[in-house]
């Protein structure tokens, strides 16, 4: 019988300890693996070839950005009807390929630069706090060493092509974001071409008939039944030769009818409906998705993107979801022939609440 050892929390006798104060370890530190030089480390011609490859990728990024602008400004400015699908497909193809080449050229180029040309030695260095001027100077020297290791100073072809690619790569995004808020409005007033003022006005006007989307059929009040929901646009919008899609995106509304006894009407809106027939903007005030579902039994309008829910009986007040503002209401009435018409434009900006809204009527705002 061998000696039986009874351990304790400090010396159980059954497990080898990883180390002790003397610096002895049960498993020795294997250290870093030996460095294996790459072909570009030993052959200058291979290094030069890799440099040309990386520069080609950066140049490809530059060409991709140029291709984007050809599609965006070149094809996009050709005189053609907005329903010309061949032209739209060509533009979308150029935009997609241009963006892909612009981004991939920079990304793949930097990866190849690091794999083939930048030093790949591994080392372990203890982190020290920077507390003295000498330590700060050492930190600056480390940064300079890193810059030297990238070889960006002694490889001007890489440096110049990278700078060129990075300089123009953001321009497509700037152009697109700029046009999100400045799309072919021909007003002489700069305030009408930018910001909330442009979203405050649509093609709805006094006496404009409400017509069904796609068919363009005018709507009589007697044809709208309780519980129905119609997609409606201004009369004449579908016949516009220019800017129809942009104007439709702002002007489209949902037309519904409910029991007037169920409606909670605020002061000043008593005559904005026709015997329970109401019209509200179809554009969600969260991020601009189209409202897609009307629940007749609950009188709720739902946005499919982020589940914002509006209560029709409370003038489309938000009762659930991330939207923070009710849907703008279009004041409507009936003309002499019994057709539904707009009393005016919307009294507040439509679309996402990106800007501060002024809920006052146009005459009170001085608009």
From TrEMBL:
What role is this protein assigned?
A: Iron-sulfur subunit of the cytochrome bc1 complex, an essential component of the respiratory electron transport chain required for ATP synthesis. The bc1 complex catalyzes the oxidation of menaquinol and the reduction of cytochrome c in the respiratory chain. The bc1 complex operates through a Q-cycle mechanism that couples electron transfer to generation of the proton gradient that drives ATP synthesis.
Transmembrane segment boundaries: 54-74, 94-113, 157-177
PROSITE patterns given in the database record: RIESKE (PS51296)
Give the chief site where it resides: membrane
Its family remark reads: Belongs to the Rieske iron-sulfur protein family.
Alphabetical keyword list: 2Fe-2S, Cell membrane, Disulfide bond, Electron transport, Iron, Iron-sulfur, Membrane, Metal-binding, Oxidoreductase, Respiratory chain, Transmembrane, Transmembrane helix, Transport
How does this protein sit in the membrane? Answer: Multi-pass membrane protein
Tell me what this protein is called.
Answer: Cytochrome bc1 complex Rieske iron-sulfur subunit
Q: Where is the Rieske domain?
A: 272-341
Originating organism: Yaniella flava
Q: Where in the cell is it found?
A: Cell membrane
In residue numbers, the region (Disordered) covers 1-46
Iron: is it a keyword of this entry? yes
Supply the PANTHER family for this chain. Answer: CYTOCHROME B-C1 COMPLEX SUBUNIT RIESKE, MITOCHONDRIAL
Q: Which InterPro entries does the annotation name?
A: QcrA_N (IPR045603), Rieske_2Fe-2S (IPR017941), Rieske_2Fe-2S_sf (IPR036922), Rieske_Fe-S_prot (IPR014349)
């Amino acid at each position: 019988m061998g000696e039986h050892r009874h351990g304790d929390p400090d010396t159980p006798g059954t497990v080898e300890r990883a180390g002790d104060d003397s610096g002895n370890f049960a498993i020795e530190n294997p250290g870093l693996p030996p460095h294996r030089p790459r072909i570009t480390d030993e052959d200058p011609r291979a290094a030069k070839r890799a440099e040309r490859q990386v520069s080609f990728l950066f140049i490809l990024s530059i060409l991709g950005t140029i291709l984007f602008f050809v599609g965006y400004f070149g094809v996009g400015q050709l005189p053609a009807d907005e329903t010309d699908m061949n032209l739209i497909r060509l533009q979308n193809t150029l935009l997609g390929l241009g963006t892909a080449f612009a981004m991939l050229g920079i990304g793949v180029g930097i990866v190849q630069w690091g794999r083939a040309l930048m030093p790949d030695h591994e080392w372990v260095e203890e982190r020290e706090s920077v507390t003295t001027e000498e330590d700060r100077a050492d930190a600056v020297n480390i940064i300079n060493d890193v810059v030297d290791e990238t070889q960006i100073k002694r490889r001007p072809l890489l440096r110049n092509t990278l700078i060129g690619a990075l300089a123009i790569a953001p321009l497509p995004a700037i152009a697109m974001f700029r046009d999100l808020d400045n799309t072919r409005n021909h007003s002489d007033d700069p305030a009408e071409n930018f910001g909330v003022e442009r979203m405050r006005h649509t093609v709805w006007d006094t006496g404009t008939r409400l017509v069904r989307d796609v068919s363009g059929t005018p709507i009589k009040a007697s044809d709208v039944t309780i519980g129905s929901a119609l997609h409606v646009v201004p009369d004449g919008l579908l016949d516009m030769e220019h800017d129809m899609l942009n104007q439709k995106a702002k002007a489209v509304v949902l037309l519904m009818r409910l029991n007037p006894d169920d409606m909670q009407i605020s002061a000043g809106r008593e005559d904005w409906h026709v015997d329970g027939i109401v019209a509200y903007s179809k554009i969600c005030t969260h991020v601009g998705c189209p409202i897609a579902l009307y629940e007749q039994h609950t009188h709720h309008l739902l946005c499919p993107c982020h589940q914002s829910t509006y209560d029709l009986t409370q003038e489309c007040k938000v009762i659930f979801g991330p939207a923070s503002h009710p849907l703008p209401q279009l004041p409507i009435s009936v003309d002499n022939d019994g057709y539904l018409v707009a009393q005016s434009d919307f009294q507040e900006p439509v679309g996402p609440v990106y800007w501060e809204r002024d809920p006052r009527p146009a005459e009170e705002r001085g608009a």
